[in-house]
Amino acid sequence: MNILEGKLGWALLLILALIFPLVASNDYLLTVMSLAYIYAIATIGLNLITGYTGQFNLAHAGFMAIGAYTVGILTVDHKVPFWIAFALSGFVSAGIGVVVGIISLRLKGHFFSIFTLCVGYIMYLVIEKWESLTHGTVGIIGIPAPESFFGIDFETPRAQYYMVLFFLVLSVWIMHRIVTSLLGRTFVAIRNSDDLAEALGINLMRNKVLAFVLSVFYAGFAGGLYAGSVRFLGPGLAGVEHTFDMTMFMLIGGIGTLFGPLLGSISMPWLTQYLQFLQDYRFIVFGPILVALVIFLPNGIVGTYLAWKARNASRKAIAAAPVKRPTVMATAKQEG
Q1: 60-72 and 109-129 are packed helices; what angle lies between their axes, rounded to 10 degrees?
Q2: Cα(14)–Cα(10) distance, integer angstroms
Q3: Mean pLDDT of the chain
Q4: Do the strands 140-141 and 232-233 form a parallel or antiparallel pair, or are they unpaired?
Q5: How many CA atoms lie within 13 A of 47 on its CB side?
Q6: What are the coiled-coil residue ranges (predicted)?
C-alpha cells in the first residue's frame, strides 16, 4: 500500500507539473518554475553526497558552473551544437570531480567541507580571471537555444519548461534507482558510521568518490540546462551562496530524502517571489520563517512527516499485537 501511495503521489505531482503551463498567466511564471526545476536537479545531486553519504560539499555550485560554462564555451566559441555540448556538461564536471574527490575525501567532517569551500572559491577565481577561456567578468553572452529535436522547437518559454521538466523527471527516476539499490544502502551505511561500514567490508574511499562524482555529475547536468535556458553566464554562478541556497532547500524539504530537496527547491523560490513586494525588507520576514522551520521541523517537512508516519505505524502495530494471557498451568506453577 505504501508503494502504491508513493506511485500515486508522484503521478499526481507529474500531472500538476504538466498542466502548470496551461494555467500560468504569463511566461515569467514559466521561467521561474523552469529555474526552480534546474536548481532542483542540482540540489538532488547535493543531497546524494550530503544527505545520503554524509559529506558536505561546499563546491557544488562551482561544479554547476563548470557544466554551464562547458555548454557556453563550446556553443558560443566553438560552434558546437547544443545537444552535444549539453551531453558533455555532466561528464566534464564528473571528470574534474574525480580528481577533487580523490584529494578531498581523504579528509573528514568539517575539514572536508572547508577544503571544498576553498576549491569552490578557486573555481570562481578561475572563471573570473581566465578571460581567454571564460570571457572573465563580461561573461558568455548569446548562448543559442537548444536545436529542434524531432520537430520540437525550444525557443519558447513553454517548450523550454517542458524540456527542463523532462530532465527533472529523468533525474529523479535515476536517483530513486540509486538510493533504493544496494549502492544507496552502502552510502547510508557510510553516513551512519565510517568504522562500522568499513567493518562490514565496504571500501570507504571508492564509495565516497563514487557518491561525489555522481553528485557533481548532477550539478554539471543542471548547469548545462541553466546555460540553455538563461543563455547568459557570469562568474557569480560559481559563488558559494548558491551552494548555501541548495543546502537551504535540502534542510527545509528534508535532507536525506528523495522528495525533500525537490519540495524545497520548488517552494522556496516561489516564497521569495511572493515576498518581493517588501523589497529590501523581505528578508526580515523570510529569515524568521527559515529559523522557525529549522527549530520546529529539524528533519525538514518531508523528514518530519516520514518520522510521524513511522511512529504512527509503530503505535498501531503495538496496539494490534495480541496480548498474551497467562494460562491456568502457568498460574499454578507461579503459585507453587
Answers
A1: 30
A2: 6
A3: 87
A4: antiparallel
A5: 34
A6: none
